UniProtKB/TrEMBL annotation:
Highest taxon of source: Bacteria
SUPFAM superfamilies recorded: Sialidases (SSF50939)
Protein name (Swiss-Prot/TrEMBL): DUF4185 domain-containing protein
Residues spanning the signal sequence: 1-20
Natural source organism: Mariniradius sediminis
Keywords: Signal
């Protein structure tokens, strides 16, 4: 990957205050909401000691916190990966400090032969949902980001799945290599994460929505859905994800960048938890009025999280970028609201030096427009001269956080902020975040 120069910007104690007035989102919230205040507290650098290229999937299995970073599977551009491993410990600091040599490789399903049903391409675990009906805590569902190319998933006219290697855009490397397409799937473990079975796809965008040459020159994706974060509310698992495809059938002659940008980039879908054992075709995307669009259909992104054109917003296929991506969502017990962190792309190859934060006061995401009621993103941190990805809030090594078994999906008044310096290839924490009501 292309390297990016310049040093870290000096950053001390930052304080961000929010407006006291009620802000309305599109769609509007059902009640007034005073946006929480937050501050960054600079700390000693806390290095995560293994490869991270995704959201941090973690779960408590009994009194053991377990995390699943890394990548696994076939990839003709970057090579076959076997980095999806797990580490365990009695608290977050212990787990995050685990040396890479002590990580354990779980048993994962093999890639299927090209043209045959099964797992294709590489996967990253982005969220782990723990089955509440299993008192042992060992039944887990991993929501994974999956990437393919026309080489690993060629087009099948009978199913409509796969990609046609014609006018295909360039990908992330400096070499002449193709762009990937991302999908989202589900794996299951019944032994606490030691072994996994592939259960099928959660969401995907198909060939007609791929954005091709000559318009797609971003060196990101050809299209698809990915970089997810999932939370359970009631009988549903709600999926927050990046939408990178065209919101309709792509045609080079009639392509409109404003239309593309209007259909991107952070969207929401949901699936019944009881369907996770056989997910394909069961999920529904938000379509503007409800969760009505098909799992492989066209939904609508969260309007309040889109970047207006006058503020630098643009389509994912543009070399200038201009969109939020990589959501990481958690429920905050202290604030009694949802918190979302996200990145911002501002150029080719996922360039961006800023991270943002947004809030949603509605615990019940399935009621009315609650799932869409996110506040306008506020700047959380900026590192000029660097490329920063995958922000997440993580529990601290405190008696309270351990007793509550906090993870990146549920947290309290204070949390540790991690993110990846992509240009340095390092995942680390420089700050704690403290919230105020």
């Amino acid at each position: 990957m292309k390297s990016f120069l310049l040093a870290l910007a000096a950053s001390a104690f930052l304080l961000f205050s929010c407006q006291n007035k009620t802000e309305k989102t599109e769609p509007p919230t059902a009640e007034s909401f005073e946006i929480p205040k937050f501050r960054l507290i600079e700390t000693d650098t806390f290095h995560f000691n293994n490869f991270v290229d995704c959201n941090m999937a973690e779960v408590w299995v009994g009194d053991t916190l377990r995390i699943f970073p890394g990548k696994y599977g076939e990839d003709p551009v970057w090579g076959f990966a076997e980095d999806l491993k797990f580490a365990s410990g009695s608290n977050a600091d212990e787990v995050f400090s685990t040396p890479a040599s002590e990580y354990i490789a779980p048993k994962l399903p093999k890639n299927a032969t090209v043209g045959q049903p099964g797992l294709h391409g590489a996967v990253w675990f982005e969220t782990v949902y723990q089955d509440s009906k299993d008192p042992s805590g060992r039944t887990l569902y991993a929501i994974y980001h999956n990437e393919n190319y026309p080489e690993t998933l060629p087009y099948n006219p009978e199913t409509g799945e796969g990609y046609i290697d014609k006018d295909w855009p360039l990908g992330l490397t400096e070499r002449i290599t193709p762009a990937a397409v991302c999908r989202i799937g589900v794996m299951k473990s019944t032994d606490g994460g030691w072994s996994w079975d592939n259960k099928g796809l959660f969401l995907e965008d198909k060939q007609p929505r791929m954005i091709l040459k000559p318009h797609n020159i971003s060196k990101t994706f050809a299209g698809g859905v990915g970089d997810p974060s999932a939370v359970a509310v009631g009988e549903y698992l709600y999926l927050f994800y990046g939408e990178y495809g065209y919101p309709g059938v792509f045609d080079a002659a009639s392509y409109d960048p404003l239309v593309e940008a209007g259909g991107q980039c952070i969207s929401i879908a949901r699936i019944k938890i009881t369907d996770l054992d056989d997910p394909q075709g069961k999920a529904k995307r938000w379509d503007g009025t409800g969760f009505n669009a098909a799992w492989d259909g066209i939904g609508k992104p969260v309007a309040s999280l889109q970047i207006p054109a006058e503020e630098g917003g643009g389509p994912a296929s543009s070399p200038q970028g201009g969109f939020h991506w990589g959501p990481s969502v958690s429920w905050n017990d202290y604030l009694e609201c949802w918190v979302m962190l996200m990145g911002r792309v501002e150029g080719q190859s996922w360039i961006g030096d800023k991270l943002y934060i947004s809030f949603n006061p509605h615990k019940e995401l399935g009621e009315g427009n609650n799932s869409q009621a996110w506040t306008k993103p506020q700047l959380l941190v900026q590192k000029p001269g660097h490329v920063i990805w995958y922000p997440s809030l993580q529990p601290l090594n405190t008696p309270e956080d351990v007793a509550n078994k906090y993870t990146s999906l549920r947290l309290g008044k204070k949390a540790r902020l991690f993110f990846k310096f992509s240009d340095l290839g390092k995942y680390m924490s420089l700050y704690e975040v403290e919230f105020e009501k």
